Amino acid sequence: MIAYGKLYIVSTPIGNLNDITIRAIEILRECDLIVAEEAKPTRALLRAHKIEKSLIFLNEHSTQEVEEEIVAELESGKNIALISDCGTPLLADPGAKLVALCRDRGISMTAIPGASSILAALVVCGFPLDKFSFVGFLPREKSERKQAAASLRSRSETLIILEAPYRLSQLLSDLDDGIGGKRECVVCTNLTMPNEKIHRGSIMEIKEHFIASPFKGEFVVILRGNGDRKLTDKLYRKH
């Protein structure tokens, strides 16, 4: 019986290079190959921990042949670590098709937990966390984007939204139009870094702040759900 290798889905720092687990470093050192999203952040991470490994790049420009190549390496008995540019892989990052292929081929997989910008933003937002939803990225096309933003208006749970570093102001404008400027909002910028900031206020207030002080960098947007403030606060205090 052929012994397949294992795919390790490894979380890496979201900013501060010290936010990596001992286990993650061990896996990156011991695996045969590393599947990464982009060269620059990957090599910076490996250099910081004195790790030298062969790399295969898997991103939005990759073809299906790359995924098949990785699966073939696993089927030959090699252990492979999958990482993204930062944080926990597959959450708005490449890799989902590879994991699905491994599932279908009977290849063993395990997660190496660690940093996540989504969870880091959630735990400081101050909104109820008994129920929350990961919205991810809004559509790129203008009409679809506006429709998606408007569809969030009635959602009662805390919502997590991501966007490209240069689209924060556009996202806040879309949310203002679709949900209304009075909805409570938290925008976390440069999480885990020395210049980390947690911006709190209404969508309108935060939109105006970033119009006056433009920001280009990594961020997470958290929206309070459309529920009764007193009831959700009471529920939040129970947890």
CA radius of gyration is 20 Å
Bulk shape: elongated
Low-confidence stretches: 230-239
Strands across the major sheet, in which order?
3-2-4-1-5
**Number of beta-strand segments:** 10
CATH fold descriptor of the largest domain? Methyltransferase, Cobalt-precorrin-4 Transmethylase, Domain 2
CATH superfamily descriptor of the largest domain: Tetrapyrrole methylase, C-terminal domain
Question: Brief description of this entry?
Answer:
With 239 residues, the chain is an alpha/beta fold. The chain has helices spanning 22-30, 39-48, 64-75, 96-105, 117-125, 142-151, 168-179, 203-212, 229-237; strands at residues 6-10, 33-36, 54-57, 80-82, 108-112, 132-136, 158-161, 184-189, 197-202, 219-223.
Describe the structure.
This protein is α/β, with parallel strands linked by helices. 38% of the residues lie in helices and 20% in strands. It has 9 helices and 10 strands. The protein has a 5-stranded parallel beta sheet with strand order 3-2-4-1-5, with helices on both faces. A 5-stranded mixed beta sheet has the order 6-7-10-8-9. α6 (142-151) crosses α7 and α7 (168-179) runs antiparallel to α8 (203-212). The termini are far apart. Residues 230-239 have low confidence and may be disordered.
Write the layout of secondary structure elements.
Blueprint (H helix, E strand, L loop, with lengths): L5 E5 L11 H9 L2 E4 L2 H10 L5 E4 L6 H12 L4 E3 L13 H10 L2 E5 L4 H9 L6 E5 L5 H10 L6 E4 L6 H12 L4 E6 L7 E6 H10 L6 E5 L5 H9 L2
Parallel strand pairs: 1-4, 1-5, 2-3, 2-4, 6-7
Antiparallel strand pairs: 7-10, 8-9, 8-10
